[in-house]
Specification:
There is one protein chain. The protein is an alpha/beta fold and about 350 residues long. About 40% of the residues lie in helices and about 15% in strands. The strands form 4 sheets. It has a 7-stranded mixed sheet, sandwiched between helices. A 3-stranded antiparallel sheet has the order 10-11-12, with helices on one face.
């Protein structure tokens, strides 16, 4: 058991997020000695966490944060506050870290599926904050480590200043802006490894060391998925495609091109590898499908890996996502807009 170390999830708003609870329960089973904390602004979710034996901490939007969000240039009504919640997640985990000065924090976004080889011990031992690179202008804080309260306070102060100067920043561009200004004050987690050129999109990544996607591979001897691997293998968020789950779609803006390597599943270790050699510690489950987090995750992942070798089952459908989209559409546009909605659907 690691002392003074917590796995921290953040869930803002009242959305049910079934995958979150499946994910937490799966981690509890795999690492029963680790402390898991949920940070939330929802009384219902805080109570649910406590009933499930999970520590909880209430997040409250300060007057200054509220003022900052009102200056945001993003659509506050999009998906019931998606943009605000995305950036608030970073502030919430930072505030929690500051409140626990002797605690090392490894924050996981709710849709990060971790495998039994996930290196919590190494992540919690890092001496600088860390996150992942996506491309030249975007970083990913889906795995976000904080060694101590002092560094968290510095990040909070810097993030607040950067956002006040540029209210168009998202969570991804905020992290990237900080990284370019303070390259020595954080670490990039490895999302690729040199020697496997097929995985790295050299036309935009150039030198993988200089852009930060491989420089710390030796610390872990494996790679993390910031989004491209999970989106390619398991599918993109069905809310972006009217309920359709689209797999094997290339992300030309990403430094990583999963379609150029083969992903394998080792049944004896319950671990993913690419080209049967390099361990993959997690997948970013952009589709939010709960089957990748529950008791049957091994079977679900194994099946998807097998299909990927033939590029079969390239799409699926989420009734839950389609139903939620339909409900939100009716709330915004009314019953009279139904014909227009169906016309849009059948154009896909």
């Amino acid at each position: 058991m690691l002392n003074n170390f917590e796995i921290v999830f953040v869930h803002l708003g009242e959305a049910k997020a079934i995958h979150l609870w499946k994910n937490i329960n799966n981690i509890k089973k795999c690492w029963p000695d680790y402390t898991i904390t949920l940070v939330s602004d929802s009384k219902n979710n805080l109570r649910k966490a406590e009933k499930n034996g999970i520590l909880s901490s209430e997040f409250q939007i300060t007057e200054y944060l509220g003022k900052m969000l009102r200056q945001s240039k993003h659509n506050a009504s999009f998906r019931q506050g998606f943009w605000n919640y995305s950036i608030l997640r970073l502030f919430a985990v930072l505030q929690y870290s500051i409140s626990k000065p002797d605690t090392r924090v490894v924050h996981l976004e709710s849709d990060i599926a971790v495998f039994p080889n996930f290196p919590f011990d190494k992540l919690s031992g890092l001496h600088k904050p860390s996150w992942m690179r996506f491309n030249e202008s975007h970083d990913v804080g889906a795995i976000f480590t904080l060694p101590n309260a002092q560094q968290s306070q510095f990040l909070l102060d810097q993030f607040t200043q950067l956002f006040s100067e540029d209210p168009s920043l998202t969570d991804m561009t905020l992290l990237n802006t900080f990284a370019r200004l303070h390259p020595d004050l954080f670490l990039y987690l490895p999302v690729a490894v040199n020697g496997y050129d097929g995985l790295i999109r050299r036309d935009i990544a150039g030198n993988s060391e200089s852009v930060g996607i491989t420089e710390n591979f030796a610390l872990f001897n494996g790679i993390f998925d910031s989004a491209p691997l999970g989106m390619w293998l398991l599918g993109q968020d069905p809310r972006n495609h009217l309920g359709r789950i689209i797999r094997y779609r290339e992300l030309p803006e990403s430094y990583i091109q999963p379609q150029q390597v083969q992903i394998n599943f080792d049944e004896t270790r319950n671990t993913l590898y690419f080209n049967s050699q390099v361990p993959i510690f997690n997948l970013h489950v952009h589709s939010k499908e709960v089957k990748y987090f529950g008791d049957g995750w091994r079977r679900a992942i194994k099946s998807r890996v097998r299909d990927s070798h033939k590029l079969s089952s390239s799409s699926g459908f989420s009734i839950r996502a389609f139903g939620k989209l339909s409900t939100d559409y009716l709330k915004r546009n009314g019953v009279r807009a139904i014909p227009r909605g169906f016309a849009k659907l059948f154009k896909l």
